[in-house]
Amino acid sequence: MKLAVLLLFIFGLTGGVKEDKTFWRNIAQKELEDAKSYTWNHNRAHNVILFIGDGMSPDTITASRIYRAGEESYLAWEKFPHIGLLKTYNTDKQAPDSASTATALFSGVKTNYNVHGVDANVKINDCEASYNADHRLDSIIDWAQAADKSTGFVTTTRVTHATPAPLYAHGANRKWECETPKGSICKDIARQLVENEPGKNIKVIMGGGRQMLQTRFNVTNIDPLDIWAGQRKDGRDLIDYWIQDKKNRSLSYNVVQNNEQLASVDLINTDYLLGIFANGHIPMDYMRDKSGKGQPSLEEMTVTALKILQKSSNGYLLVVEGGLIDFAHHRGHAAQALLETVRLSDAVNATLRMVNPENTLVIVTSDHTHSLAFNGNSKRGNSVLGIAEYSKIDGIPYTTLSYSTGGPNNNAYTIVKNDKNESFAQRLNFEKLQSNTEDFTYSQQAAIITDEAHHGGGDVAVYARGPYAHLFHTTHEQNFVAYVIAYAARIGPYANHSSTSQWNFIWLGSLLSLIRTFYAY
Fold first, then answer.
1. End-to-end Cα, the chain, rounded Å
2. Contact call for residues 71 and 380 (beta carbons, < 8 A)
3. Which of 184, 250, 240 is nearest to 215 (CA)?
């Protein structure tokens, strides 16, 4: 089927296939037959893999698909049989942040902006409230470990960043990655990862964030200091603490910090793997050092994680975050965001080749949208990073992609004077400035200039395949995801759920339906 579609695409471009009514009717008929042949999977999910594209809005997905291989193509998850929408608002904000939305995704409870692993009783910076056990939330990692499943997470951000933090930590501020307010009783996120449960029992942890874990570390051209983040200053070496903990418990472990070390891991004899590949976030893929001393791709980390977790006879739960999509959007770098989305698709494709769809639930979603806009009216086949057309009002070109909000680099206007010496704003002509709109460092124009491009408040898509993937079928609250995972895998709130009782309920429903039908006649 894939070859046939590819040939149709190639011939279409070369004039070999006319996209007339017959062409489109054949495509629709094939999709209809595929849809009719699909059956729901009621197996128990032995394994669960949750992919999160941070800031991956619907427009980001569409633009990334075109960027990768044209309008006719699909990203890895776009052919999953079940799709829904998730409402991303917080308990106190219409447009959310990543910590609060990750808390909803991982714990099944919505919460306040900028807090993590706690419910709405905890306000920003209220350390004491976050220490109240009644306000703390168990995550899907807690639930999976209680069911004796192996657990892991990989991310292109710091391992202590906003999205992974709610998997294992509880706090009143997502910024408390390596320190908390002076005199505070709260532990920082990094310490919770290596000292507390469930963090200390997570078998695979990979990403960046060395400067959050160690007080002393090297700064090189390959691995610079992350000036956007804090830096541990308490003298602790949490990587060494992690090693000592595994030694004390007689566990097989490995610590890796570059591509060369990752490639040499003895996967058979390693049960716990800590991979910290950068002082801050792992670099954007377009500038990532791919040499032995450099950093791995999201796909490479995901594949390694799966190879370790798949040794578990009780199954596993893996969370994978493509975190730099959001980072690129915040700076208005659309090309970087699209490439990072494509790299997430690569990781999903690699995963699909390694798992059994009959017993593995795979979910792909996003935590929130962004302010990226997909504008008209470019011709089909045009570069999605190129010019859409020239404005009919001012005659100045605009790009297919722009941002509704953006930082100073996204400034679209300059102040000019007319012949009456009156000042007014005129949109910058990037064409006259000889700007390359397809360059990775080009910042698309924004309508409103703020400190940076801000998150959006729109719905995000959720795609699923495998056991109970059909439970995603409409517009859901974002916290629904954790409950689907729990129900499909029989963990957490559904750990004692009986499939027999489920089928008894189904048969009872069928019987009642038959009785109603009988009396209707």
1. 47
2. yes
3. 240
Catalytic residue selected from 57, 64, 98, 402:
98
CA-atom Rg of the chain in angstroms = 25
- How many residues are present in the chain? 521
Greatest Cα-to-Cα distance within the chain, rounded to the nearest angstrom: 85
Using DSSP's 3-state secondary structure scheme, residue 135 falls into helix
Q: What is the pLDDT along the chain (521 residues), one digit of tens a residue?
A: 444 444 444 445 445 678 999 999 999 999 999 999 999 999 999 999 999 999 999 999 999 999 999 999 999 999 999 999 999 999 999 999 999 999 999 999 999 999 999 999 999 999 999 999 999 999 999 999 999 999 999 999 999 999 999 999 999 999 999 999 999 999 999 999 999 999 999 999 999 999 999 999 999 999 999 998 999 999 999 999 999 999 999 999 999 999 999 999 999 999 999 999 999 999 999 999 999 999 999 999 999 999 999 999 999 999 999 999 999 999 999 999 999 999 999 999 999 999 999 999 999 999 999 999 999 999 999 999 999 999 999 999 999 999 999 999 999 998 888 888 888 888 999 999 999 999 999 999 999 999 999 999 999 999 999 999 999 999 999 999 999 999 999 999 999 987 544 544 444 454 544 554 444 44
Annotated catalytic, 383? Answer: no
Report helix, strand or coil for 390.
strand
DSSP 8-class letter at 478: T
pTM of this prediction?
0.93
Q: List the Cα angle 355/37/80 in 5-degree steps.
A: 40
